[in-house]
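Per-record layout

source: Anopheles dirus
name: N-acetyltransferase domain-containing protein
length: 170
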Amino acid sequence: MTLPPQPMPTSQPYKVVPIHNHRELMDQCIALINSEWPRSYTARLWSLESSKETLPTSFVLTTSVKNETVVLAHAKLSPIPADREAVFVESVVVARERRGQGIGRLLMQEVENHCFRTLRLQKIYLSTIDQQAFYAKLGYQLCSAINIFGSRPTLNKSTKKTWMFKSAAC
């Protein structure tokens, strides 16, 4: 049985904040996302500017270095039109030099808190090509592909990705 997500310890030098409340972090966030999945600056900016209190929402995990806020990780949550009680974690990225330090886990805990406690959603879905073990450690289970775009529950049959979910009941 997986324990429910807990708030991030305040002794940690990290903060998780929605990007729409911290527009000054947009350029850093774009650079971080593009370091993993290159796209145009304009496309990334448009995506981040769509972040809001409901969905879609983009979160950044930050720390302070010499009194300057530095973006270390990002996660984007998107609605699933066919399932109003669920969310799709569209992307999660941690700065390469900070991987393996628990930052992804902290970010996902905050994402889960937001989804299950604030938005009162029942399920979180995601897909991954190479991070199944990471998400399994966080309590995510394998599932069939889902439709993340339209209003019909037609399955998305991407062959490269592994689909996973976590329920609020876990």
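summary: The helical segments are 26-36, 41-49, 103-118, 132-137. The chain has one domain: 14-167.
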